[in-house]
Prior knowledge:
Blueprint: E1 2-3, E2 6-9, H1 13-30, H2 32-35, H3 38-63, H4 72-87, H5 93-115, H6 120-139, E3 150-151, H7 160-187, H8 189-199, H9 201-206, H10 211-237, E4 239-240, H11 242-245, H12 249-261, H13 267-283, H14 288-304, H15 308-317, E5 327-330, E6 335-336
Helix pairs in contact: 3-7, 3-10, 3-12, 3-13, 4-5, 4-6, 4-10, 5-10, 7-8, 7-10, 8-10, 12-13, 12-15
Amino acid sequence: MAASGFTVERATAASRAAGVAGIALVLVAASLPFWGESSWMREFVEIACYFIFAMMWNLLAGYGGMVSIGQQAFFGFGGYVMLMLGNFAGINPFVAIPLGALAAGLIAVPVSFAAFRLSGGYFAVGTWVIAEVFRLSFANVSAVGGGSGTTLTALRGIDKSTRESVTYWMALACVVAAIALVYLFLRSKRGLALLAIRDNEVAAESQGVPVARMKLAVYVVAAFGAGLAGALYFVGNLRISPDAAFSVNWSAFAIFMVVIGGLGRIEGPLVGALIFWALNKFLSDYGTWYLLGLGLLAILVTLFFKQGLWGYAQQRWGWSLFPTQRRHAAARTPIIRP
């Protein structure tokens, strides 16, 4: 006989609509160099770097439970590797962007041996110390300008309009790749294991979850993404220095963006990056007052929107553009029982 039943699904009406709108938006965005202003492309590259870096910090802390204030180590390392491959090895800097990200992911493996000996607040402080070691190390390498930094000379033969267009397309591709990487990772069995580790590491291990391997995997993925953001940023900036590449401000800004947008949500860093970019664009001239404003906004959101702005919208209206969790839904066709 016919009986009502339930199905298990991830996608929602909002996520399906967002998928269609996202594809259309990417296609329109890809055509921007043919009709838009060069300043628009530069602004997008900046937003893309903020977003990718914040998304990777969110993956590490929001999903993995590892709060790091030293992810700028991989941001700067990716930037420096890109520059060295371009200036010294003759590799096209645009090709060197993913290579810089790969190098950041690889260096994260030995770094993790030291970082994972710590936990909680000690882990956070330890990652910052590691980032400072990276900064001081590159500040003493004369081949890349030492403490004053150096310029990306490998792009000198490319005219400005072509360089800006290709940088923009690379930024767009990196954003799409970063979203896809994190989304597919969280939808997999590894994503479920990661959430279990975040909620209760001991319980997860007792259920057979390979905790050490999973923590290493997410740490390497987050380092790869941070290196990707760093390589992309310094291709657009054309100059790098240890203080700019390994500044703790990168982690501070990432924390701000994730807290504002929503910790533990893919959409959170996107919302936070847009808000941070707008505030930085229009209020940065106010100096200290600008920084105080950022802090005040973060405090207000933490007090009144504990799950971030997107978290509030998701809880209030059920919005989820990138659903990663399974949910029960009524079956669309009756179930026939013999």
